[in-house]
Structure formats: structure tokens, C-alpha cells
Request: fold
Amino acid sequence: MINDVEQMFKYCEISEDGQQCFFKDSIENQKIMLAAFKHNPFMAKYIYIPILALEFVFNTENHKRIYHYLNHENLLPIVKSKCFYVGNQQEMNDSLEGKYSWSLSSDLLDEKENSPQIKELFEEVKRRQPFDSYIWSFTLDENNMALQNYGDIAVVMNPQKTFESLASKYTNPEFKDMSTGNAFIFPLHVIYNRKTQIEYLSNTLDIWVNSIKIGNYGDYQDASLAMYLYSLVFKHPKYHQEEEIRYIINKIPDANRNGYDVKIGGKRKLEAPFLPTLCNEIIVNHRADKEENENIYTVQTKVKDILDIYDFNNTVVRKTDLEY
Reply:
């Protein structure tokens, strides 16, 4: 078994994070993944979701701190309600979110096929939403200059406790009896490398096109789902400085294709737990100095006052280490 595992790790280019997650999984799931790999390594690497998840996984147990940037004015409703409003993929600030990888896939497909039937099926798969997907974005960098454009504070959270709180709210133990309103949660690294993106998209499209031609519905479904996963983790290389890690919360939708908890300003949101035990620290950056009638010191005081009012008494508030 050890040799088989090593071959799978090498062929599928599974990172150290993914390897550790594999060995923490149940023996039964390990055997299922190995069986899929031995049956067809190429297919396992590019369209088998459990192995794809290992390839892109962010191992929450390997890190103590992750950072989410926002404006201090948005902190009050979060700490007051003790929940963080996580946005729907289709309603993010980034206009390319959920569209970038599909556009790249379409260009690659144009180079491979000119069949109107296949093009029509591709558009159908692109429109299909197997889940109602929500994205909670973080980074490992407490001084990420690119993400400071999103706000003057960085909320510091414990990645494993954050994952556990989401799983406790949205995922049934051992995934039993999962139904409408439940969710599959994936902590994943965003992939910015265009060469890697093209490799995965091109090979998956080859499998997808071939499945249509030979009438293999199972491979068609698996490849379609893999392309959906890519749309959640592939971003344009121009955003690489964000170094984003995201918790993808794939809700099982209702009959109207919705899985949201609440609407805020007309946008669908999940109410992710935001408890004092999850938030270790808040860092104020120099974006605060650009706020009207504010500076880094006044914002630090405001944030601390808000936290004390709503029982985040052990959450430290400090200024960034950066000079500007």
C-alpha cells in the first residue's frame, strides 16, 4: 500500500498539506482514493474530486493564524451578531469571480472542437450550478499590501477552529443524511499559476469531450463537476499578490436553487459563526490614516471599544508592524 500511496502523491503532485490530510482520513476513504488512482491515474488526477481536493487543500491544522481584511466600520454588525456574512460566489466584488476559469476553458475548447453540439453542452454545464457556493476569503500574510485595499483592519482567526465551526453548523457528522441546507466545506489554496490552470482545464476538457463521444455519462458528470471546482479556485494571475486561501461552502440548494441563510442589501449570505474563541486578534493597518477624520490610533481605539462591548474581551487589537 505504501508504494501505491507514494505513486499517487508523485503522479498527482499532492502537496505536503494534501499528504497529511490523506493520512488523517479514514482507512476506508484512503482505500477508495487509491482504488480510483490505480484504476486510472490520469482520470484520478484531473476529475476525481476527493483527489483534486487533496491537490489544492489548505491544511487548517498546520497553521495558527489566518487573516481577513475589511473596513473597521463593517466590524460592528459582525461582533454584535456574532456571525460573519459570507458572500455568494455569484455576488462577489471581483467581476471575474466564477467566470475566469470558464472563459479560459471556452478558449481551450475552441482549439480542440468545433462541434455545435459539444459547444452547446459546454454552455449548459457552465450554467449549471450543482451547489449554491459561498466563499470566505483569507490570507496567511498579516501585512498583505494588496488586500489592504479591502479595508483598514485584518481580523485574525484560528484556521482549524474556523473550519470546525463551519462544519458543525453546516455539515452532518460523517456526511450522513446530507440534505437541503447542509454544505460540503473545502479549505483550499487559490491557484493563480496560468500554466497549472491550463494543464488542469485542458486535460479535464479532453476527458469531458471524450466522454461525450463514447457516451460515458459517469466521466461526463465527474469532469463537469471538476470544471465547477476549478471555477471556485482558479483566479486570474494578476491577483496573485492576494495569496488567497478560501473556505468554499458548497450548500445543497433548495428547489429554487438557493442555500442562503439571509439576504443583506439584496445579496445572499451565510451566517458563519464569529465567536470570541475564533478571533485571536485584530490588526489595524495604515489604510486607517486615509479615512476622513480617522487615523490608525483612533481606529484602534474604536475597534477595541466595540470588542469590549460585545464580550470579545480577550481579542487583542494592535497596530500593524508596517511603517506605512
